[in-house]
Amino acid sequence: MTSVLPNFLAGRWQSGPGAGTPLFDPVLGDELVRVDASGLDLEAGFAFARDEGGAALRALTYRQRGQLLANAVKVLQANRDAYYEIATANSGTVKSDSAVDIDGAIFTLGHYAKLGDTLGDTRLLRDGEPVRLAKDPLFQSQHVSTPTRGVALFINAFNFPAWGLWEKAGPALLSGVPVIVKPATATAWLTQRMVRDVVEAGVFPPGALSVVCGSSAGLMDALEPFDVVSFTGSAETASVIRTHPAVAHRSVRANIEADSLNSALLLPGAQPGGEAFHLLVREVVREMTVKSGQKCTAIRRVFVPAELFEAASEAISAKLQGITVGNPRNETVHMGSLVNRAQLDAVKDGLASLREEADVIHDGTTHALVDADASVAACVGPTLLGVVDADKASRVHDVEVFGPVATLVPYRSIEHAITLVRRGQGSLVTSLYGADLVALAEASVDLASTQGRIHVISPDVASMHTGHGNVMPMSLHGGPGRAGGGEELGGHRALGFYHRRAAIQASQTVLDALRRLG
Ligand code: NAP
Questions:
Q1: Which of 351, 354, 375 is nearest to 364 (CA)?
Q2: Which residues line ligand 1 at a C-beta cut-off of 6 Å?
Q3: For residue range 499-513, what is the model confidence (pLDDT) as tens digits?
């Protein structure tokens, strides 16, 4: 039997008493490690984080906390090679895909470290200027934000074990709020290893950073009114979180990132062979294949003018044809595996559902696996589907296949295209492609209320844009409606979730004293 990864809770390493749940190599099928969270005293662990970790973090200024994040960045950078090895073994990702997770995590944490420096040596955030409440200007109202006196519980998805931790922990710890992370079981190893390295380096005060690997049982029950919970995963589990008494009755603040049917839209007027057309084709192929399409931001629906449907089908298929799939240890492989066989089955089921109203343009099953046994490995080739009648098709707007699958959809006019994008019921991101800068701006505004982010790719930014699916810490991540209604990142905006805002109504003299505090 492989070793059981210990949990870090209440300031000490604790192993569950059971045999644990095994984690596997999704390509070779080997068991790697085990996790077990049974028997932990969660209440005591959460109380320790709240009381010890919270108090120690709140005693520091934003600049000092930013310095701790910078120290954590150094530890993570020093251990990068080990993280890549774990990602290859446990997530089945090729090196460039592991980088999206691992280096994306380190970059994001570094961003919040620097933000701490700009916030300076203060322990509260003033929100706006004082506003007069009475005729006499002596009595005014000043809004302030101070860190919530609770813990931040992160319940994370399997697809970003590194970034999923640090993109949340950066803003939380910078805010002065202790973190307890529960990674998805399938890929918990990388999260646990990163926490272990940072804990062993003594970067944060005791209780500031904890990890629980294994079952989620009891975690939500341990939450109290000033705690917050941030969830990433399926819509089904999201509804369990939303309706849990901690959220429904104890007002625990919840942030939800769930499913999303993200879009790419080629604006009218594009020419086959033109730059906008090529930019769309390149981005669609990249989004379908990076991390085998297991990105919450990946392009699932591709909208093109009806007269370009054939040309887009051919151009995307031609590029997909060249994608090699298989063992990520083989350097000729572009695309590794899905996270496990259960996800492989889910992708096959999703494809079968979409195929009931879509045609196969490029068939992923035609890709022979490189250095991988199809009866063991969770590998699947990229599949491009197409619908003929965009108005009749409904599943393309409803079924999120969490793998290398996208559907091409023809549209008649820009109004028609925007209506079709909105049928996704709210998404994390839509990317727009075109050369008419005014039309791009207009489409962005039309779509903004239903998207968390609009990524606009015009020829002038072709060589510098950051990618449809790449989540940058300076920009908002999250989306309305189906996407969960959550908000993360967006630079300093992320700190709002971990702070409580209050209005202080007082004499100007008191507010002047407050100004000197922060
Ligand atoms: P999931 O099954 O919802 O699991 C997400 C997290 O919730 C995991 O840590 C899981 O722990 C935990 N969990 C499960 N049941 C719970 C409960 N009753 N109470 C509290 N926590 C619970 O999602 P997933 O397996 O990671 O991914 C499944 C699907 O989610 C994907 O196919 C995809 O459609 C979607 N997804 C969306 C995003 C996004 O950002 N939009 C990202 C990733 C995945 P265990 O792992 O221990 O079960």
A1: 351
A2: 155-159, 182, 184-185, 216, 220, 232-234, 237, 240, 257-260, 296, 346, 400, 402
A3: 999 999 999 999 999
